[in-house]
Amino acid sequence: MAPYASDDNTTAARDTRGDDARGARRRAARYVVPVAVTGVAAATIGLVPALADSGSPDLPEISAQELIEKIAASDVQQLSGTVKITTDLGLPDLGGLGGGLASGMAGQDGGEGSSADPSAKLTELVSGTHTLRVASDGPDRQKLSLLEDAAEYSLIHNGEDVWGYDSASNEVYHGTAADGAAGGKRAEEVPATPKDLTEEALKAVDDTTAVTVDGTARVAGRDTYKLLVKPRQSGSTVGAITVAVDAKTGLPLKFTLTPASGGAAVVDAGFTRISYAKPAASTFDFTPPKGAKVTEEGDAPRTQERDFPKGLDKEFGDGFGQGTDDGAGKGLGEHAEGPVVIGEGWNAVAVLDTGGRGVPSGTEVGGDIGGFLGSLGDEVKGDFGSGTVFKTRLVNALVTDDGKVYVGAVTKDALVKAAESGK
């Protein structure tokens, strides 16, 4: 399919509510919309076509099934734009600890890592509000820039080269697409645009899900249909997912996940400006600045190979020539043998056995660290024994005293029920 021509090269963002587009990150493996998603049972899909709200674009009627197929068939190869992303998981403020942990990821083998290593830098998307500039010109050229108050971090893929540049530290990270293809283990990827978040959400669509078209809206100056995904089951922390889909190209332009508990969105990712025009070739050019410290991929201390963030390599082409691996599509905490899963659909809980003990006490780990960890969670008891539940606004985890971990986008009560059923 040829790239879409642009009829709105540069437009200011607005939707029917006038909200700024926002967005976020979740731990992810590489996903594509599977054939099974486009063949979801009719009982799951709402057959009511889209009807424009007052003031919304007046678009042709479309069913939820047709809209999902439109997303799956989208083949946008060229674009540039700005994405605003916000994550509000309700995590406690750990001050400089979080940044220190992120920086340490680049040097997991004890060496000093590079601040330009994407696996460390892009973990900043786990919380707060961030602005990204993105550009893509097919599978061989992508660029993502994370804009900060007084600095900018850029990640560039141009042919065989992958460059990361942190202007704050004047450090450069250099790798190659060929290295990524030949590497053994694959690193975590960071969903950076609405489409990769949407693809993950659609993988959860089954008979435990209600999917409808919920009117139309304007996003980044484009006419969109709004796809509404809601769990049918109680016990999930997910309230609803709304995706604004470009009516012409089928590209998701905004993704919003609201929690069952109410309040602000947990995840809100959206384009505030988008153009489907071919980016200038110079967009993807990079030469290390004078005096910059350059770290080559083979020299960087780490335990895993690093990947370009999901959302540019997989959204607008296969990118980097990295192919797939046996671990593609595995879920949170899944290893070679995979976790045991209790429940189904949105109430599924992954069970991991660490083979150790639960949350350590302060005396076990020294100082007050164990007590601090315990203070972040709620102690619970049941037929399974006792443990601690660590909560966010989306994903919760129960760590039992005998070392089992129950994780899912479910409530505390659902975790305890899962632990009791596992006995």
Task: Explain how this protein is built.
The protein is an alpha+beta fold. The chain has helices at 35-38, 64-73, 96-104, 118-121, 177-182, 194-203, 362-365, 369-375, 412-421; strands spanning 78-87, 128-137, 141-147, 152-158, 161-166, 171-176, 209-219, 222-231, 238-246, 252-259, 267-275, 293-296, 340-342, 349-353, 377-382, 385-390, 396-400, 404-408. It has two domains: 35-299, outer membrane lipoprotein receptor (LolB), chain A (Clam); 340-421, 2-Layer Sandwich (TATA-Binding Protein), CATH 3.30.310. The N and C termini lie far apart (52 Å).
CATH topology of the largest domain: outer membrane lipoprotein receptor (LolB), chain A
CATH architecture of the largest domain: Clam
Strand order of the largest sheet: 7-8-9-10-11-1-2-3-4-5-6-12
Number of domains: 2
What share of residues are in beta strands? 25-35%
Instruction: Report the count of strand segments.
Output: 18
According to CATH, the homologous superfamily of the largest domain is Lipoprotein localisation LolA/LolB/LppX
Report the principal-axis shape. Answer: globular
Order of helices and strands: HHEHHEEEEEHHEEEEEEEEHHEEEEH
The main sheet comes to:
12 strands, mixed
**Please, what is the oligomeric state?**
single chain
Structural class, from secondary structure content?
alpha+beta
